[in-house]
C-alpha cells in the first residue's frame, strides 16, 4: 500500500469510526431495549457506569474489563436438550449408514431411536462414546466443516428456527453494550469449543479465540505430506464447574470482573469472578421462568440444573434474572 | 455515564483516534526503521501489502490476520540461558534459606552453585524438579507477584539491563506494523505462560489472553472460605515442537497466516502456518549471527537449537533473518 492510498484509507476509517460512534450514541439512549426496567437491568447499567467512570476508586482500565458468558441456557436455548446433543443424534443417524451394527448396539440404538431415557440409562460412559464417535477421528478442518454445515440447516423442532436464531435478544444487547464500554467478551462453556467456534463471531460477535470450552485432544501429524491436526477420541479438558475458573485462567490469564451463567455448572465461575479484587464485580444468573415463551426449569432438569447456585445467589450478591418478568423479548425478531 | 458525558467522551475518543491515525501515518513512512533494506524487510512489507489489498484474491479479512511469535530467541534474548532458567536459579537461591538440605542435594546443589553442566547432567528429570519446586505450590496470584517482582529487578549479567529491555527492537517494530495493519499478534512459546503474561502487554503490546505457552495444572478450591486457583506440581501442557500447532489451535481456533520463530521448537508451528489456505503465508526464522551485538549460534547450542528448521527453510519458502546484516539495531535504545 503506498502512502497516499494509506492516508486515504485511514481517513475513510476515521470517518467510518465517527459514524459508528454517532450511531452508537443514538442507540445508547437505551442500550438494553429488550430488558424490562427492573432490578437486573439497573444492576447492569450501574455496574458498567461504576467501572468506566475515570478517576474514581471503582474505575477499571479497559484491558481488565473482562466478561465471561456461559453459552447453553445463558446465550442460547438448552431445552429440550443441549443443541450439541441434537447435533450428536443427527450425526449418529448420518454415520449409521456405514454402521448397520448400531441398530442393535447401545448407546447407538438409543441415539438412532431418539430414546432419551435409554440414552440417559447408558450413563456418562454411553454419552462419552457418542461424543467421541461423532467428534473425533477427523481433522479439525473437517470437523469445522461438519459443524458449519449442520448449524446452517438444522432446525429446532418447537420454534422451527435455526438454533443460531434461538439466542437471547437481551443477552445480545448486553454483549454489545459491554463491548461498547470497552469490555472484552468471552464464552466459557461446558460445551465443545470446536462446536461453538465456527459460528460465535457471526452470532454473538465473539471471535474463536475468545471462546473457551471443553475439548478433545488433538495430534499434529503429516498425512500425504500435508501437516494436519487430527482429533483424537480422548478428553483433553472439561470446562464445567470447577473447570471453568481453571479454563478461564488458562486462556485469559486474568480474573474477569463480570460473569453470566444459568446453572450449577457456572457456580465456581461466578464465585471466582465475584471474589477478590477491590473494584466492583457483577455476577448474574439467568433463571428460566417462562414456559410460554421459552422454558421453565431449575432444580429438576437434566439440562442446565440450577439448584445450589440459586441457593447461594443472594448471599453472594449475584443478580438473578427472572426471564418472564425481566425480559421483554426472548429471541431476535425474525 | 449520562448521555452528554458519553457523547463528550466519544467525541474525545474519535479525536484521539484521529491523532493516533495521523501519527501512525507519519511513522508509516518507514514502519520498520531498524530493519536493513534487505530481503526479509521486503518480504514482510510485500506480504502485508498483499493480504491487506482489498478486492484481490490474496486479501485476508482482518479477523483472519493472525500472527504468532515464538518468544525466547525470537522476541527476546535466550543466551547464555533461557531467562526463565535465570529466574529458576534465582528462586532456588531465595527458597534455599528454608531448605538447608539443598546444599547437598541435586539438582538443587547445581542450581545454587550455578553449575550449568551439573544441571545438564541432572537431565530433564532434574530440570522438571526445579521447575515444579519454583513454579508450583502457590496460587496463580502469588506466582504472578513473584514473577512481576523478579522481572522488575533482575539484570542480565552481560548487558546489565533488565531482561524486558533485551527484546529485539526490529521485532517490536514488526509487531506494531502488523497490528497497524489489522493483525492480531499472539505469542506461542515453549516457556511458561504464567512467566510471560505479567509483562507481555507492557513490553510487546500483547495482552495475557494472547499468550500461549507451557503450563502446570491448576486446581480450583477454597482456602479459608476464599476461592483460589492453586498451581500443582504437574505438567499440564508443553507448548513446544508439535505442541505449538496444537496449542495454537486450542487457544486461537484458527490457523495463523504468519509465524515467526528461531529454533527447531518452531518447526511444526511454521509448517502448520505456511501450509494450507489459498492466501499468502509468511514464515520467518530469526538466525542468530551476531556475536558482537548479541550472540551467534544455531546447530550446536543447548538453548534455541536451529538445525532441522534451517535445513528446510528454503524449500518451504521461509525467510531467514540474518541478524548481523538484516537488523540495524538489536535492542531498544536506553
TrEMBL record, chains A, B:
Keywords: Signal. Gene3D superfamilies: HAD superfamily/HAD-like. It comes from the Bacteria. Residues 1-27 form the signal peptide. InterPro entries: HAD-like_SerB, HAD-like_sf, HAD_sf. This is Phosphoserine phosphatase.
